[in-house]
Amino acid sequence: MLSIIASVAALHLSKAAADISVQGSDHVNVFQGTRGGGNRFPGVVAAPFAMVKLGPDVESGRTDAYSGYLPTGNIWGFSMMHESGTGGAPKYGVVSQMPVLGNITNPGANFSQPRASPDEGRVGYYKSSLANGITVELAATEHAGLYSYSFPNGSSPSVVIDVSHVLPSFRGLGWEQHYSGGSFGIFDDGHYTGSGTYNNGWNLSPDWSIYFCGKFNQRPSRAYTFVSRGNTTVSNKNGTSWVMGNQRLGGVFAFADTNLQSRVGISFLSTAKACANLDSEITPDTSLETLISNAQRRWNTEVLDKVKITTTNSSDLQLLYSSLYGMFLIPSNRSGENPGWTSTEPYYDDIFTFWDTHRCHTSLFQIIQPIAYEEFIRSLIDIWRHDSFMPDARSSNFNGRVQGGSNADNVLADAFVKGVRGAINWADGFAAMQTDAEVVPPNNFDPKAPDSSTKEGRGALPDWLQYGYITPRFTRAVSRAVEYATNDFGLYQVATGLKKPAEAQRYLNRSRNWRNHWNPSATSEGHSGFLVPRAANGSFIPQDPKDCGGCYWGDAYYEDNAWIYSMNAIHDVAELKRRIGGDERFVDRLDKLFDLGIFNAGNEPGFTSPFLYNFVRGMQWKSVERSRYIGSLYGAGESGLPGNSDAGAMESNLLWQMIGLWPMTGQTTFLILAPWFESMTIDLGRNKSLSVISTGGARDTSYYVQSLRVNGQPWDKAWVAWEDIFANGGTLEYVLGDSPVGWSTGELPPSPAS
Ligand SMILES: *[C@@H]1O[C@H](CO)[C@@H](O)[C@H](O)[C@H]1NC(C)=O
Ligand SMILES: *[C@@H]1O[C@H](CO)[C@@H](O)[C@H](O)[C@H]1NC(C)=O
Ligand SMILES: *[C@@H]1O[C@H](CO)[C@@H](O)[C@H](O)[C@H]1NC(C)=O
Ligand SMILES: *[C@@H]1O[C@H](CO)[C@@H](O)[C@H](O)[C@H]1NC(C)=O
Ligand SMILES: *[C@@H]1O[C@H](CO)[C@@H](O)[C@H](O)[C@H]1NC(C)=O
Ligand SMILES: *[C@@H]1O[C@H](CO)[C@@H](O)[C@H](O)[C@H]1NC(C)=O
Ligand SMILES: *[C@@H]1O[C@H](CO)[C@@H](O)[C@H](O)[C@H]1NC(C)=O
Ligand SMILES: *[C@@H]1O[C@H](CO)[C@@H](O)[C@H](O)[C@H]1NC(C)=O
Ligand SMILES: *[C@@H]1O[C@H](CO)[C@@H](O)[C@H](O)[C@H]1NC(C)=O
Ligand SMILES: *[C@@H]1O[C@H](CO)[C@@H](O)[C@H](O)[C@H]1NC(C)=O
């Protein structure tokens, strides 16, 4: 065990080393998580949360390309809107164009091209080399994109714009997008404008429209619109023209010079706004290089430079910065671009979904991007003002889908208890949460779960209010019940802070209702007591805790089983521990999650369970072992995510392991793990920072906490609070070693509902 003196000496050394500045964007692998189910978007996102996400759309048999991209297959367009890291079904892939060789006789033909070599990308830049010799380089701004084409010498360059282009889904689940119409007009000077309207996708959205405005750096030698009738494409070759309708339509442009630049602005409001967005962000003389360096600067100053480590190990640097980058690709900041209502509040879309992100993404979002986070919270409340409910998921300006609870409640509670105020109207914020807690959302009759709303709110609220649990007349009854309990705990937190004691008491009570699904006689693998389905007459329905049926929309548990969901009332852990049978049984049950292969690091419902050892004195070291195991599943490479990125949820999970803390969402508590690096500094804004320092550590062999000082004081609790290290900054100094030490003998982490 190293002495405290050694640790203080290391602190000084690390501070000196920290002066060597690291350009975070140099370490980002934009292809992290693009293979093996990560579904990350590798294309150009010019700033955190930029509205434009410009990249290739790839087809490969009947494989869904969730972010447009697939590592193998043909490219069939380069489009301006994508979502990163999601499952369900592909969304967007709209405002596309495709460079084509030769004179176009049939604009409706299949122009897809194999790649001549693998795509290349870095922050702010993307390049594809097509088999026909065309090279495509991309850069962007928040609302516009620049396509730089190089056609083979002596060829006849063309660009085909097909408004009907939208990412398909082959899953057959009814979640595919549809093109439902558009317009396309070419002006005398060669520029064009138009719009496309699309619907459906995973969130079952009605028609929504995107407007565009495009300009080239050369006058086209020929330009015409086309519209297809049946399978025949009719081209209008008379020059300036305008087409609209619900058929496949668009434009064809031919050029003389083989070096062509194409720039396009988009808007949700109008073609005029699309042109204004283009003209204000990319002018005729804006170079690709300028846009790339602007994008890198924004990513560095707004995200990547917020976290500094002193190591020179390039694989660590790549993993850290690729993860930070991947965390901030969505949601999309669409302030000033909301077609739904007029408001001076910020507007964010592409929340996909809080079911994924509320556990550990949003709490890191607050720390790294506090300005955007406050805007984001205001936007959620404004969506409630105008759409009646906050989203659990949202895209194309439409709330949907709800997998479990109304988890925006947890997000607002987490922000509230950590002091996020600014311009947020918290009276409205609490009213929005109360809508979730008290108003049954209208049923949208989702074919996958027709019992109640999957659009927003809490569909199973009637049972929750009547019985204090959810009967099987509602799908996903048990998993929804645990989440409703955590949602109600969120209301308790905010009601307490707003000095509403009656409401606080009501929701604290309700936050305990997860207990009503607890069947003490349900047994599995030597353990008794699990959350099970419960009938209206109060009797428990027999259920093997290891079996969740289909684990899907129509089942009692969604995407995980009773072993996992039984651990998820994280505001009531002391009671949970008591029901499980005390410390030893609790530790054994956590062990079994791993020993029996129940835990899946790629699935969000289990995210917090590995660290609940911190609720038993002296057992913090087991949480560290789990943390190291989870960390070992990640890498900076294409297959570096152990599951869908899920809008950055997966990346944020790893980042917390690196920091060595775990957020208990909705509370100010952070469970203590063990940091990865000798020195990490997180810029908290307002001239404050968190410094995490360790000595004696080695990633795979020496990671057990031997001792800890918080702000210089010896620490024996397996947790810290927001006030300790984040509110005003702070220092965590660890001594790590290669064998477990039962150092965490102090006060247990709070169980506020117990
Ligand atoms: C393409 O079409 C234009 C106009 O019809 C014609 O002048 C040109 O020769 C054609 N080029 C090729 C390669 O066919
Ligand atoms: C387009 O052509 C490519 C290459 O022949 C083929 O792989 C692909 O399936 C075609 N796409 C469509 C939508 O027919
Ligand atoms: C195309 O022509 C340019 C200018 O004549 C020349 O520099 C370039 O090498 C040529 N590219 C190819 C691929 O032949
Ligand atoms: C279009 O072509 C498809 C496949 O070749 C065919 O099944 C369909 O009937 C055609 N539609 C029309 C309107 O001709
Ligand atoms: C061009 O074509 C469009 C539609 O096909 C037609 O409405 C328009 O009158 C034509 N313009 C000229 C100048 O012929
Ligand atoms: C970088 O760190 C990783 C993870 O600890 C380790 O496997 C690798 O050997 C290190 N590389 C170098 C060059 O030290
Ligand atoms: C969000 O977008 C609006 C409009 O473009 C901009 O004013 C605001 O600064 C953006 N927010 C952040 C955090 O960048
Ligand atoms: C809380 O629950 C208890 C027990 O079910 C009940 O007696 C009490 O009235 C409830 N309080 C509120 C404020 O709902
Ligand atoms: C309670 O309801 C369940 C499901 O409807 C039924 O199977 C069970 O027999 C009932 N039990 C009692 C005691 O009525
Ligand atoms: C941060 O520190 C600088 C330099 O000491 C000072 O000028 C600035 O006002 C401080 N900002 C805040 C928000 O305290």
Strand element count: 31
Number of domains: 2
- The low-confidence runs, each spanning 5 or more residues with pLDDT under 50, are 1-20
Would you give the CATH topology of the largest domain?
GH92 mannosidase fold
InterPro entries: 6-hairpin_glycosidase_sf (IPR008928), GH-type_carb-bd (IPR014718), GH92_a_mannosidase_put (IPR005887), GH92_N (IPR041371), Glyco_hydro_92 (IPR012939), PNGase (IPR050883)
GO biological process, one term: glycoprotein catabolic process
GO cellular component, one term: nucleus
Domain Glycosyl hydrolase family 92 N-terminal: 27-267
Descriptive overview:
GO terms for molecular function: carbohydrate binding; peptide-N4-(N-acetyl-beta-glucosaminyl)asparagine amidase activity. Residues 27-267 form the Glycosyl hydrolase family 92 N-terminal domain. Keywords: Signal. The chain is of the alpha+beta class and 754 residues long. The chain folds into 2 domains: 31-299, Distorted Sandwich (Beta-galactosidase, Chain A, domain 5); 314-459 and 481-517 and 571-737, GH92 mannosidase fold (2-Layer Sandwich), CATH 3.30.2080.10. It has 18 helices and 31 strands. It has a 9-stranded antiparallel β-sheet with strand order 4-5-6-7-16-11-10-9-14. Strands 1-2-3-8-15-12-13 form a 7-stranded antiparallel β-sheet, with no helix packed on it. A 6-stranded mixed β-sheet has the order 17-26-27-31-28-29, with helices on both faces. A hairpin with a 2-residue loop joins strand 26 and strand 27 (688-695). Helix 4 (314-327) crosses helix 17, helix 8 (408-417) packs antiparallel against helix 9 (426-438) and helix 8 runs parallel beside helix 11 (477-497). The radius of gyration is 27 Å and the shape is globular. The two termini are 37 Å apart. The model is unreliable at 1-20 (pLDDT under 50). One 2-acetamido-2-deoxy-beta-D-glucopyranose binds next to loops.
